TrEMBL record:
Secretion signal, residue range per the UniProt entry: 1-23
One Pfam family this sequence matches: Cu_amine_oxidN1
SUPFAM superfamilies (UniProt xref): Copper amine oxidase, domain N
Keywords carried by this UniProt record: Signal
Protein name, as recorded: Copper amine oxidase N-terminal domain-containing protein
InterPro entries per the UniProt record, alphabetical: Cu_amine_oxidase-like_N, Mao_N_sf
């Protein structure tokens, strides 16, 4: 970290230095008023400094001011050098790393790609923007473009160090290295059992009107089982009929058996009619001062069924907080509706959270 150093040139209109030094031709007699009734605070702490007012401007002694601000002072007839005496702050945090699968890849208008990554590390669920500034490479080491990234790829990405406090967090990807490309299967599980030191799940298809096993996936030590928000799930949650999204392969044996990379346990999705109704409810709950900032149209807002204990929820008030706890205790769900705004770069998107039963506002996801 570079040493901080301030240089203040001493001119006829400069600071009043109480050093006793002078420069011929630059000194003239002035009349001022010492204001003992006005105090100076530094970082909220009171000092013994009091300003002198000359021609309507406030002046404070350099030596005393430097001490109050934690600076050393060196003086010669041409300039004042103020050098920080405080321990330099630590170096900026480096990039954050995640390793996982790309759950979705959506092209942005500016040519970048919005990547939803379910992975390991500090943020198991993160949205990264990859663009022309991002270093991207394939498994063979060859350079890729942001547009080459797609759902199902297993990646190791570096991002940050700034991460928006939205949920999921959002950041810019400094680098993305594709390590493998998985196949994706999103369907209800047909069978599930413990086998070969792990778990085995099967998917089926209709043949002559009969459900028949069509694909078998085997978990291993590196297989991750998570919910839609990247949080670790338990294999006992998976039963016949449980909807999941499986990332597997890419190698498949002749018996239609492949290795599992990641399994995402999915909530049952609301119907189109329910989604439309939720959008109407959420639109009415958007704060009036936020309406001019919305970029997402009412009919295009993303709707999600979320857990009451989802990280990042900020209750609207004490009553909402108690209601969220009651819903959690009862095993219920909340509805979250997401809106992009023209303030996203500064404070992140707006997310409305409400009770699907009462249709009342419960809170928002914390913005940056």
């Amino acid at each position: 970290m570079k040493k901080q150093k301030w240089i203040i040139l001493a001119t006829a209109a400069g600071l009043l230095a109480t050093t006793g030094a002078s420069a011929a031709g630059l000194i003239e007699k002035v009349t001022g008023q010492l204001r003992g009734d006005i105090s100076v605070t530094v970082n909220g702490e009171q000092t013994e400094l009091h300003p002198v007012y000359i021609d309507g401007k406030a002046y404070i002694p350099v030596r005393d001011a430097a001490e109050a601000f934690g600076y050393g002072i060196a003086w010669n007839q041409k300039q004042l050098d103020l050098t920080s005496k405080q321990t330099p702050p630590a170096e900026e945090a480096g990039y954050i790393t995640t390793s996982g699968v790309v759950a979705s890849a959506t092209a942005n208008a500016d040519g970048g790609v919005r990547l939803e990554v379910l992975g390991t590390g500090q943020n198991p669920w993160i949205v990264l923007t990859a663009d022309a500034k991002t270093t991207i490479a394939g498994a063979d080491g060859k350079k890729l473009a942001a547009g080459d990234l797609k759902a199902g790829m297993h990646v190791i990405a570096e991002y940050g160090p700034i991460v928006a406090k939205s949920y999921p967090g959002q950041s810019h990807a400094a680098s993305v290295n594709v390590t493998a490309e998985r196949l994706v299967k999103e369907q209800a599980v047909y069978t599930v059992e413990k086998a070969d030191g792990g778990w085995r799940i099967q998917f089926s298809e209709l043949k002559d009107g009969v459900e028949t096993p069509a694909l078998t996936l085997q978990s291993g030590k590196e297989t991750r089982l998570v919910d839609k928000e990247g949080r670790a799930a338990d294999w006992t949650q998976i039963k016949p009929g449980t909807p999941v999204r499986a990332y597997y392969g890419p190698t498949i044996t002749e018996g239609q058996v492949a290795a599992l990379d990641t399994v995402v346990v999915l909530e049952r999705q609301p119907t189109a009619e329910q989604i439309a109704a939720y959008r109407e409810i959420a639109w009415k709950l958007v704060p009036a001062e936020q309406l001019p900032h919305l970029l997402t149209k009412k009919e295009e807002a993303q709707v999600a069924v979320i857990e009451p204990d989802s990280a990042g929820i900020m209750p609207a008030d004490e009553a909402a907080k108690k209601r969220i706890e009651a819903i959690k205790a009862a095993g219920g769900k909340l509805i979250a509706v997401y809106y992009s705004t023209d303030q996203d770069a500064l404070i992140g998107p707006l997310t409305i959270v409400f009770d699907p039963e009462t249709e009342k506002l419960l809170g928002y996801f914390i913005r940056r």
